[in-house]
Amino acid sequence: MEKFTTHTGVAAPLKRSNVDTDQIIPAVYLKRVTKTGFDDALFAGWRQDPGFMLNQEPYRDASILLAGPDFGTGSSREHAVWALRDYGFKVVLSPRFADIFRGNSGKQGLLTGVISEEDLERFWAAMDAQPGVEMTVDLTTRTATLGDFTAGFEIDDYTRWRLLEGLDDIGLTLRNEEKIAQFEARREAWRPRTTPVP
Amino acid sequence: MSNPTSDVVRIPDRPRTLAEKVWEDHLVVKGEDGQPDLIYIDLHLVHEVTSPQAFDGLRAEGRPVRRLDLTIATEDHNTPTLDIDKPIADPTSRIQIETLRRNAEEFGVRLHSLGDKEQGIVHVVGPQLGLTMPGITVVCGDSHTSTHGAFGAMAFGIGTSEVEHVLATQTLPLKPFKTMAITVEGQLKPGVTAKDIILAVIARIGTGGGQGYVLEYRGSAIRSLSMEGRMTICNMSIEAGARAGMVAPDETTFEYLRGRPHAPKGQDWDDAVAYWRTLPTDEGAAFDAEVFIDADELEPFVTWGTNPGQGVSLSDAVPSPSDFEDPNERAAAERALEYMDLKPGTPMKEIPVDAVFMGSCTNSRIEDLRAFASIIKGRKKADGVRVMVVPGSARVRLEAEAEGIDKIVTDFGAEWRFAGCSMCLGMNPDQLAPGERCASTSNRNFEGRQGKGGRTHLVSPLVAAATAIRGTLASPADLADAPTEFASTGVEA
Ligand code: SF4
């Protein structure tokens, strides 16, 4: 997982609340055998509509999503995070997230920041006035800046630390690399080995 | 005696259970302040259903498999049991299997593919190779990994992201389980098997009764079981809600292991046995919960409903929802009876079946097939009943053929198939048709488990055999010329 300190990119307004995981990635895509390459599955239902925001020019390459409250509700599928990440999103800002979705995001390097509804409205208005405008999200200061307006966002200390250090669950465990190696060094010879026996 | 060379973890000097000993000997890091422990994994079994995304995750992060020598893969859930030399017809099954083959090749994981003599159900393959042994930790992306606990190993199923975690680190962050002793004392009547013990245990403690626990099966009836029987019992720990089940290792365990391809040899064997003898639960060790079962009382057991806890003795009748005081259980019974199309009060032995499935990781080892064959030998199956016999692994199939069991099966009028999960879950073409009723030696009787609309009665191999002969649920004792002597599954001669 890459370390996250600041990110600057096109911000896209998703003016809907209660965007559930079925809308983020419809169930038919769950049959796949990969954990990557879900970019085409993101919002697949909505993207059939040429008028959908992400089908419009300044937003095709958006990397920051500003969504209405209760983003990521529904099933626990990690695929929702994979789809956002694969499409190129690095950050989602919303006044409220579903807990499981938020937990999954932190593990996959997708920053989810909670902002106030007022700030969201203000960002949306600024984006409408200037479609395709870039936003800078700074995790060190927990702020999002668009033009001359800066707003703070919330993220818990633990998730913030993991993102700053670029640690997924595996990365976290591998911080104990030395202890794992020590344990391996003292494992008894009789323990099983799957390598073919002569 | 704890791991003598451990310089990281100090083991307090107190009586400990088998589960605690194995756990503590695998502590890489002891979790502080409510954090999970980091546990080392000795053996990681991999199959095609839960591994693709795990390998893809490794690839995305550029991570290798940490210990290829502790990892082994086989194809089982999706493999056909007929025409195994032809391409797999179902696209989803084919893609999963092809993906496993590509991943194994790319990452260097040892894989036993369809057609290989070590291919088979992952939980049959591990023990048969001698990889599963006492005092180790075993994981697999499959809930029935509990099977391996029969050797006194700590074995449990994990999810796909945990599969990736183990592939990358050979460890898992885990909170310790609580312990439950299930003591089965006494002597089983002839015709009563390991399967009947575990079905009775689940009926007693319920499908949620084991939640959060590792179950340790103890007592004279468990000690008298063969390794195959112990595996049958540990296999279904998950149906009691537990993540793992264990049996303390003893001479039966050592005898089973001795000489198997991956069992320790020479000095390693002696060291291992010396350590294994220290594993059984200490006198005075405390369990978090205890259950007692009287083995003398047990009879062949069958399920009537749609969860493995809905079972009765074969000589009983279908219960009525009003027999259940708990309103949830009553409602569940009503729904189950409707799905199963059964009337309360019907004697279980009068229920006719359309199919008999002899297989699955619960009961598809050589001993199970021998038991089944000992009943059907020289007889004919009931008219109109489809009987499918699916060995748990290619090696079991070969062994059975060397003993002539395939001939007994086909003379009986049953189908002799290639190894795999088969009709246990119907991911391959082996499925029940809607409304069909099956006596099955597998472990789950959920709605639609063996095919959409299919109805499953869980039974032992002996009951499966007698049922195939009579056409209605039956035990060998119910047969007209009941065999007086038969190979009893799960019980040492
Ligand atoms: S035989 Fe059945 S229970 Fe066992 S691993 Fe296969 S599908 Fe799962």
TrEMBL record, chain A:
What Gene3D superfamilies does UniProt report for this protein, alphabetically?
A: Aconitase, domain 4
Enzyme Commission identifier(s): 4.2.1.33
Which positions fall inside the Aconitase A/isopropylmalate dehydratase small subunit swivel domain? 1-112
Give the record's keywords alphabetically: Amino-acid biosynthesis, Branched-chain amino acid biosynthesis, Leucine biosynthesis, Lyase
Q: Does the keyword field hold Amino-acid biosynthesis?
A: yes
Q: Which reaction does it catalyse?
A: (2R,3S)-3-isopropylmalate = (2S)-2-isopropylmalate
Q: Where are the membrane-spanning stretches?
A: none
- Pfam families referenced in this protein's UniProt entry, alphabetically: Aconitase_C
Task: Name the HAMAP family for this protein.
Answer: LeuD_type1
Subunit details: Heterodimer of LeuC and LeuD.
Q: What is this protein called?
A: 3-isopropylmalate dehydratase small subunit
- Which gene specifies this protein's sequence? leuD
From TrEMBL, chain B:
Q: Which cofactor does it need?
A: [4Fe-4S] cluster
Q: Which GO terms describe its biological process?
A: L-leucine biosynthetic process
Q: What does this protein do?
A: Catalyzes the isomerization between 2-isopropylmalate and 3-isopropylmalate, via the formation of 2-isopropylmaleate.
Annotated metabolic or biological route of this protein: Amino-acid biosynthesis; L-leucine biosynthesis; L-leucine from 3-methyl-2-oxobutanoate: step 2/4
**Species of origin:** Microbacterium album
Top-level lineage group: Bacteria
Q: Note whether Metal-binding occurs among the keywords.
A: yes
**InterPro entries noted in UniProt:** 3-IsopropMal_deHydase_lsu, Acnase/IPM_dHydase_lsu_aba_1/3, Acoase/IPM_deHydtase_lsu_aba, Aconitase_4Fe-4S_BS, Aconitase_4Fe-4S_dom, IPM_dehydratase_rel_enz, IPMI_cat
Q: Gene that codes for this?
A: leuC
Asked if the record carries the keyword Ribonucleoprotein, the reply is: no
Name this protein carries in UniProt: 3-isopropylmalate dehydratase large subunit
